[in-house]
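Let us practice reading a record.
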Amino acid sequence: MQFLIRSAHIIDAASSFDGQVVDILVENGVIQQIGQDLSAPADSRVIESANLHVSPGWVDMRVLAQDPGYEHKEDISSVCRAAAAGGFTDIALLPNTLPVVDDKGILGYVRRMAEGQPVSVHIIAAVTRKAVGEDFTEMLDLHHAGAVAFSDGTHPLQNPDLLLKTLQYLQPINGLLMNRPEEQLLTRFGQMHEGRQSTLLGLKGIPALAEELFIERDIRLLDYVLGERTGAEGLESGGTIDAPGSLLHFSTISTARSVELIRQAKAAGLPVSCDVAVHQLIFDDSALAGFDTNLKVNPPFRSPDDLAALWAGLADDTIDAIVSDHSPQDAESKNLEFDQAEFGMIGLETVFAASITHNRMLSLSKLIGKFTARPRQILRLPAIRIAEGQAATVTLFDPTDEWTYERTVSKSKNSPFLGQTFTGRVVGIIHRGLFNPTT
């Protein structure tokens, strides 16, 4: 099948066409020609839109698919449709299913279910059996079976010895450990960020310290494993802000101190990376005044100062990626009193629109980079470049178009954004030789 993308503004720092407005001819999934005023072959489909932009396909590094085990909340097919609607060509799935993705059989099931979907599905396998933090999985087997990273997903690795040995195990195979930083002994029964707002609302707080202690601990353990530096003196030495590889990735950081700790670790040359959930860039803890359970997430919305620090971390590349942290929950899990409701919100379809609508300081090119080159690099995925002869895995979007998020293709509806108007609309994706438009 042939597609002619007409008058597209290219956003791709690795492409010689970056910043140019050109036509792109795609045939059988390959970019055949890039230039001005290209002729449309007789059997081609012309894709055009006002203010059309094209970038390499977007990657979401943190998606909970709920399949197998909780298919009434989401399944592989519905999560892939939601990802395509949000402009993603690739998603990385957390292992927190029933059963947990902790052996080759379950990993194989997910891979089979992902065949023929509009997006590529990459599997994050569990570090420990059943993701309960006790016994190791067969990580080498899972790595050879196609796992792109290892994580207990929604369950932080609490045991420092387990984390240390995991880092030692993964380093020789160029593996990646992803950990959500939370010292759970400090957050038990917590419902929202610990601060003035939690006191006013009468809700048990989740202290920022619980995240920050975890990050400091993990960085120190990584430093110990590498054996290149010891103690605070090593971590305060000079270096570059951006290490190309990553052995340890912090998922969904949320506090100013967390940003600073990771900034220091990168400056010391440690192979660390991190991401932030898009909703953490939009809401602070005052948003919970109405007790909307769709806003109950973990980590929780922090203070306005923390929110500003997250944007600053994106701007100086301390924070590598923006993720949806897509966590589908059915009505029975959300239509409850606030302290009884499950954590999580869906977000695949609104990541780009929400981030660009509320953008504080990033250029469009840098913002798109948080969905493209760096996530691919962290997950060890092949690089994508808009150039002749390259595979056509691209996202098409209009950064200025206004639209209203009226319905979701996800099975769950736990989004605070339904009914809201955004700036920035996804036009569609081209992947595996097919064009999947959003409308």
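A brief commentary: The two ends are 20 Å apart (CA to CA).
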